[in-house]
Amino acid sequence: MKAKELLTPKSKLTTLFSDMNIKQALEIILKSGLTGVPVLERESKRYLYSVSTSALLKKVVEAQDLAKTYEEPLASVPLERMSLAASVDANVQNLIDLIVNQNFVPIVDNTGVFQGIVTRKAVINYLCDLAEL
Predict the structure, then answer these.
(1) pTM of the model
(2) CATH classification code of 3-131
């Protein structure tokens, strides 16, 4: 099975753009209720990295000047870990290696354009179906 068969499409996801400031990103991610969100380049829609709610909140809590910090670019938030992306044509076995260490795997086409994510839950459900659990 290929990644594209387990994909949650980008149209159903919350994403952020790299040109957003911290306040804009924080408002979106907190409204979503998610623990992490893919960050895309606005024009090309290419996947860059994923940012966690905790990393954003930590940046704000540690701020000495909150107003100034809110205006800083999203890229100024240190990444807690790198969420590696996979191709839409990747086999599920390749996703398993990634999903062990990530809540979701960002999925990109052959030019790096973000297509969606495969969640840990989708991979577990697939494996349970294989094992007929």
Answers:
(1) 0.90
(2) 3.10.580.10
